[in-house]
Design brief:
The protein is an alpha/beta fold and about 290 residues long. About 45% of the residues lie in helices and about 15% in strands. It has a single domain (about 5-285), classed as TIM Barrel (Alpha-Beta Barrel), CATH 3.20.20.220. Bound molecules: flavin-adenine dinucleotide. Flavin-adenine dinucleotide binds near residues 108, 154, 160 and 164.
C-alpha cells in the first residue's frame, strides 16, 4: 500500500519520522521509543537518509525492522547526494526486497563545505529528476517530496520554489510533506498557493515539537525556520530548567497542531527525533479527526 492512500475524504494521515542512529545503543533506544510511538496509531513511519555511508544502510535497517515488527507501512528517505543512477537503482531494489514500498525523494543538502549543490557524476541535480527516475524504474513505489512553507533557502523567490515543487508533483510525486515551521499562516498560505498552481496532491504539514531551546535554534538555523518571538521569549524564561522548556514546547505544539487540524489539514507528520515523549504529549492533547 502506498502512503498517499492515508489522505483523503474521511481520512487523516498520521506519520512519524525517525533518523538512523549511529550506534548500537542508539538502535536499542530507538526500538524502545518506536514501541511507545506505535501506541499513538501512526499510519506509517519514515526514516531519514544521511550523507554518510554507514547511516544510509541503517536507514533501510531501521525502517524495514519497523515494518516487520509492527506490520506498518514505511517509507525510506533517499537523496541524490553522492549517488549515481545505478546506486539509486540498487538501493531502491534492496528497499523493495525488504518490503519498503515508499520513498521520500529528496535532492539533499550540499556536502559540508560546499555552498552549491552539484549533481554527482551519473546522478541527479534536482529532486524532480529523482522522482521521474523512481516513477520510470519502480512504478509501484509511493513517492513523497519535500515542500517549503517558508520557501527553500536557495530559491530565488517563493514563486520559483513553488514552480519547482510542481515539477516534482508533475514528475509523479503522490504527496508533499513540508519542512518544519512554527507560523501556521506560512503553511496555510503555502497550501493555498499549491492549490492555485494546480498541485493536486495532499500537502502534509511537518511538525517538530520543541523540547529544548538550544536544539531548536540549531535546527531552525539550518533549515531557515522562523520561531515566533513570544515563543522564544517564553522558552528563554526557562533557560536553566529543561523540564520547563519541554512544557512550554509541548504547549506550543498542541496549539499549533490544534489550529492546523481546525484548518482542515490532510494529516500531520511529526519529526519525532527518535523520541516519543513530546509527540505523545501533543497527540494526547489534540483531537485528530476520525481517531
Ligand atoms: P529540490 O526539490 O531539488 O529543491 C532544491 C532547490 O532547487 C530549491 O531551491 C528549488 O526551488 C530548486 N529547484 C528544484 N528543482 C529545480 C529545477 N528542476 N531547476 C532549478 N531549480 C530547481 N535531507 C537529507 O539529507 N536527508 C533526509 O532524509 C531529508 N529528509 C527531508 C524530509 C523532508 C520532508 C524535507 C522537507 C526535507 C528533508 N531533507 C533531507 C532536507 C532536503 O534534502 C533539503 O531541504 C535540500 O536542500 C532540498 O531538497 P529537495 O528535495 O527539496 O530539493
Amino acid at each position: 500500500m502506498t502512503i498517499a492512500k492515508f489522505y483523503g475524504a474521511d481520512q487523516f494521515g498520521l506519520s512519524f519520522e525517525l533518523f538512523p542512529p549511529k550506534t548500537a545503543v542508539g538502535m536499542t533506544r530507538l526500538a524502545e521509543q518506536a514501541g511507545k510511538l506505535i501506541e499513538y496509531g501512526p499510519d506509517y513511519m519514515t526514516c531519514t537518509y544521511g550523507a554518510g555511508g554507514s547511516t544510509q544502510s541503517r536507514t533501510l535497517e531501521v525502517i524495514a525492522d519497523i515494518r516487520r515488527q509492527y506490520q506498518l507501512p514505511v517509507a525510506t528517505h533517499l537523496t541524490c547526494v553522492g549517488n549515481t543512477a545505478d546506486s539509486l537503482h540498487e538501493y531502491l531494489t534492496r528497499a523493495l526486497q525488504s518490503g519498503v514500498r515508499n520513498v521520500v525523494a529528496l535532492r539533499g543538502d550540499p556536502p559540508q563545505g560546499e555552498k552549491q549543490f552539484a549533481a554527482p557524476a551519473g546522478g541527479f541535480a534536482h529532486a524532480n529528476q529523482l522522482v521521474a527516475f523512481i516513477r520510470a524504474e519502480f512504478p509501484e513505489m509511493g513517492i513523497a517530496v519535500g515542500g517549503y512553507p517558508e520557501t527553500h533557502q536557495e530559491a530565488p523567490s517563493p514563486e520559483i520554489d513553488l514552480e519547482n515543487l510542481k515539477r516534482k508533483v508533475d514528475a509523479g510525486a503522490d504527496l508533499v510533506i513540508t519542512q518544519l515551521f512554527y507560523h501556521n499562516e506560512d503553511f496555510f498560505r503555502f497550501r493555498e498557493q499549491c492549490e492555485r498552481l494546480g498541485i493536486g496532491v495532499p500537502v502534509v504539514p511537518g511538525l517538530l515539537p520543541v523540547t529544548n531551546l538550544g536544539q531548536i535554534q540549531r535546527i531552525a538555523s539550518l533549515c531557515g525556520a522562523k520561531l515566533p518571538a513570544p515563543f522564544t521569549a517564553n522558552l528563554q524564561r526557562y533557560e536553566n530548567d529543561p523540564r520547563g522548556q519541554f512544557e512550554v514546547g509541548v504547549e506550543f505544539a498542541i496549539c499549533q497542531a490544534q489550529e492546523l487540524v481546525a484548518g482542515d489539514v490532510a494529516g500531520l507528520h511529526f519529526y519525532v527525533l527518535n523520541q516519543s515523549a513530546a509527540t505523545g504529549r501533543v497527540l494526547d492533547g489534540v483531537a485528530l479527526p476520525g481517531r
